[in-house]
Amino acid sequence: MALGRNRRRDRSVDYWPGFVDALSTLLMAIMFLLTVFVLAQFILSREISGKDEVLNRLNNQISELTELLALEKGSKQDIEDTLANLQSTLAVSESERSRLQSLLDSGAGNSSAANARVGQLSGELEDARQAGARASSQIDLLNQQIAALRAQIASVESALQASEAKDTSSQVKIADLGRRLNVALAQRVQELNRYRSDFFGRLREILSDRENIRIVGDRFVFQSEVLFPSGGNDLNPEGQVEMAKLATAIIDLAKEIPAEINWVLRVDGHTDNVQLSGNGRFRDNWELSSARATSVVKYLVSKGVPANRLVAAGFGEYQPLAEGDTPEARSQNRRIELKLTER
């Protein structure tokens, strides 16, 4: 009866390690996504910094051109006022000339004085006309300069608007890139989880009748006594039979997983906490656990499993499933674990 209870305990499912591994895989995927996103943000920030410098230069140019335009408008107003004064003076001179001409016509005695006054007014009138012509030329030149300044300001404003539109477009592209990365990453995780579920489903069918094989979370656990002799790393005949079944399942599954999913089967070796004697083949439990994991990997490769889909790792006694120094706890800790994961 005690033996039966112990076996039922051994067959109990402990989902906690599998949950921890699944959470670790998700965290690694999130860290990868954040790294890509931060890199994209860094590249965008450098590009935006350059655009900000261009925008500042454009704004400075607009300010300078606006000041020049204000100065030109002030000069134009001054010249227009001068022209108005000259035109007023011209009108007064013409009126005075007409008055004198009428006096000249009416009084012959005063003709010499009137003629002198008319000559003087004619000279002043001619001077006023020339000054008006010069003022008109200056106004035309100022109008041309103002038109050129307005065209230059319009060009700078157009460049500024184009730069702002490009910056907005870059922000939209970054947001879309982040969204697509999230979707792609979620799809990869879902696909790997689906194939992991298929893989373990097949192994359950093949290995469900074995008492020394357990499922712990998302890993298959083989007790070392099933595969290896005590203190050795060479697969015994019974272990070779089990690994041959495993190799067949892996080969069938590899045909269905898409090539873009970079998956591997990790083979982890674990030992108990009993230290090895210095006279054996291995100096410590690190070497023993690594040698056993490597033996399983090499045997799977010999049965046709692609070598690039296998990883061997040794953990010694430092990742126990059961705490304590009892024979039962040490037996549980001497094991080989198989886990399908992403490289």
Automatic annotation (TrEMBL):
Keyword Coiled coil: yes
Pfam families: OmpA (PF00691)
Record-linked PANTHER family: LIPOPROTEIN YIAD-RELATED (PTHR30329:SF21), STATOR ELEMENT OF FLAGELLAR MOTOR COMPLEX (PTHR30329)
CDD domains given in the database record: OmpA_C-like
Residues spanning the membrane: 20-44
Lineage, highest ranks first: Bacteria, Pseudomonadati, Pseudomonadota, Alphaproteobacteria, Hyphomicrobiales
Source organism per UniProt: Agrobacterium bohemicum
Protein name: OmpA-like domain-containing protein
Domain OmpA-like: 216-343
GO cellular component terms, semicolon-separated: membrane
Taxonomy, superkingdom: Bacteria
Regions annotated as coiled coil: 48-166
Keywords, alphabetical: Coiled coil, Membrane, Transmembrane, Transmembrane helix
InterPro entries named among the record's database cross-references: Bact_OuterMem_StrucFunc, OmpA-like, OmpA-like_sf
The keyword Cell cycle belongs to this UniProt entry's keyword annotation: no
Stretch forming the signal peptide: none
